[in-house]
Amino acid sequence: MLGSVKGPHDVKRLDAEELPQLAAEIRDLLVDCCARFGGHLGPNLGVVELTIALHRVFDSPNDPIVWDTGHQSYVHKLLTGRAAGFGALKQEGGLSGYPSQAESEHDFVENSHASTALSYADGLAKAFKLRGEHDRTAIAVIGDGALTGGMAWEALNNIAAGKDLRLVIVVNDNGRSYSPTIGGLASHLSSLRVNRRYEDMLEYVKDKIGNVPVLYDALHGIKKGVKDVLAPQVMFEDLGLKYVGPIDGHDEQAMEAALRKARDFRGPVIVHALTQKGRGYSPAENHDEDQFHSPGAFDRATGAEKPKGRIWTNVFSEELVRLGKDREDLVAITAAMLHPTGLAAFAEAYPERIYDVGIAEQHALTSAAGLALGGMHPVVAVYATFLNRAFDQLLMDVALHRLPVTVVLDRAGVTGDDGASHNGMWDLSILQVVPGLKIAVPRDGERLTELLGEAVEVSDGPTMLRFPKGPVAEPIEAVGKLGTMDVLRAGEPDVLLVGVGPMARICMDAALLLDAQGISATVVDPRWVKPLDEALVAAASAHKLVAVVEDNGRVGGVGDAVSRLLRDADVDVPVRGYGIPQRFLDHAKRAAILGQIGLTGQDLAREITEAIAKRSSPLESQSAPR
User: Fold this and answer.
1) Active site residue 554
2) Which among 193, 261, 277, 279 is annotated as catalytic?
3) Active-site residue identified among 193, 389, 411, 554
4) pLDDT tens digit string along 73-106?
5) Which of 77, 208, 215, 395 is deepest in the core (most CB within 10 A)?
6) How many Å is the Cα radius of gyration of the chain?
7) What is the pLDDT of residues 145-170, one digit of tens each?
């Protein structure tokens, strides 16, 4: 049946009796594809019926559906004509793991950072109203987790003021924190609350008895009291938003009925759907940690994930636990990513010293500032791409007060599979402007251990440590020191290669290839890239060319910082910066992307050879006999 669905029009033509088969086929395909390559399986298994109902009630793309975070949009992709290509999900050249405008007109927004959908939908609904497009409804699907983000509540505050906006908010509540309200009376009240005649009646009563406030308040109190008992979500209605639910999110017909009522209300409505993460696949349903939120490849029959080997996050996790034993002032903060950022072991060892603030990176940093003001040393672990959201807090709440807060950025640089929004390629650029911030970039696991220990010893300002996704790099031992920098390869004064963190391995590969071309290269790992060690000035002066290689955007990164350092010291040795182009990268494996953008040893050696040749040619022609 799924093979015959080429778009939402085909979903609408199906009889209600056929929908359970469609849902079963969707779940089967989801499990099969995610077992092979990994992906956000649990969230999508939980929204199958919900998504079918959305496409039967609304007319996408005329009615845009905005998926908050976007990782639960797989079913949406299948129902909008992309089932045939689903086998290449998250693979190079295949479908993205998030909504993608390049893939389909049904993907309105490419959001994959949480708590944004309500703001998008608010703007869309306002635009439709201003343009006189009264047949269009904006739909936002947001999970209970994303509602922990402050931005979602800022949006709700504004949406509530737009009484005539055609906007439907579907709260996908898979946290199992609410019990559904069951029974005919509850269903009747849900219908009543989105009946325009009910609203008109309330306004009429208010007008007629408005000069008798005690009576009106008493009637209003009775109304709220009944709703408090039967639908424990009155906080939404306290904002002025109409609320329907809770609805069994796996009862497709019930979801359809609720969505139709919400659509026809002609004003903002919240539809509260209770769903089960991992629904229909027992290994996911019974997975205590996260119901297979985003597993790697796994055995379909058992659900057992295939071994990943030792990754950077493991090294950080183990070292933080060790440091916590000797440092009782160390506390850890996560923004709803306890396991992915490696803080679960710290939480188990020191349960009183771990704080999960939900999807609220801004709050995480300022709460860390408060902890530091109170005498603790917080370690805030987030994905590099999500730190962008807390820049102001790091700048004005932490750095301004010179507070000892350590920020650990997992998945820094090119992350690959999750696409443009998840590449952590911005931090080394945007954080260069933060006064007093010290930034460390380890090249391997041993250096991660060393630098984390050094970072938490800093007491007069914030520190940051970043590392990439995936297997931890093989260690590269230093052959010497240059100030605080590690010399990894000593060479004659031709080229100074500055390898930032894990890019040191690429520099070592390039140095060998350059040596074959008769070009000698010195390779150094700065370890701390902000501030840069002044010893770099003398080292650069002794070479013909400096090349800085980093896993970050080229603009404003470490390469630019090295150039600025040398300019300020009146050193005119040319500096070449090699990093990530300032563009949004398509999804692919990390190694494939590094190859595409020229960050390999071979690419680097070729470009440096050409640069040396260009600089040598004029000198040789001037010195040649006439």
Assistant:
1) no
2) 277
3) 389
4) 889 999 998 888 888 888 888 888 888 888 889 9
5) 77
6) 28
7) 888 888 888 998 899 888 889 999 99
